Amino acid sequence: MGPATKQEYMYQFRTCLKCYYKVFKQTLKRVKMKKYIDTIKDKITIEDLDEARQDVASVIGIDNYIKLCEEFGGTSLFFPKMNSLARNSVYKKVIDLKGVMPKKQIAIMLGLSRSTVYKVINEYEGKH
């Protein structure tokens, strides 16, 4: 149901204009900020960062750090320990070797406990 009178229509029209104007201003701010960031991006150095971020930037380089910020800025990132990254690879190796050698040998070769080897194999066989 639309506005009943000309006054109501004009009120709704002005309200819409105000909303569009707000959105336009916010968009313009973002565009100006992006242009400004693009002009200074090449001038950012590791020294411009706080200490915790300097550690990351010194490992991956300031250019890669800036790329991370552009891609994931505003989100939280968690970096797992290396043993967590390697775990899936080691577990795949356990599955590959399960029919080739005894489980005890697999455990010794990969530096795992026998119970871990059994657990990995049982979980794999339970899924397949």
State the main characteristics.
single chain; 6 helices; 0% strand
**Record field, number of beta strands:** 0
Helix content: over 70%
Class from helix and strand fractions: mainly alpha
Overall pLDDT:
87
Percentage of residues in DSSP E strands: under 5%
Radius of gyration: 29 Å
Report the span from N to C terminus: 59 Å
Largest sheet: none
> DSSP helix count?
6
Q: Spell the H/E element sequence.
A: HHHHHH
- Please mark out the parts with pLDDT under 50 across 5 or more consecutive residues, or reply none: none
Please describe what this structure looks like.
By secondary structure, this protein is an all-alpha fold. The protein has helices at residues 6-40, 51-60, 62-72, 82-97, 103-110, 114-127. Helix 2 crosses helix 3. It starts with 5 loop residues before the first helix and ends with a helix.
In short:
With 128 residues, the chain is mainly alpha-helical.
What's the structural blueprint in terms of helices and strands?
Elements: H1 6-40, H2 51-60, H3 62-72, H4 82-97, H5 103-110, H6 114-127
Helix pairs in contact: 2-3, 4-5, 5-6
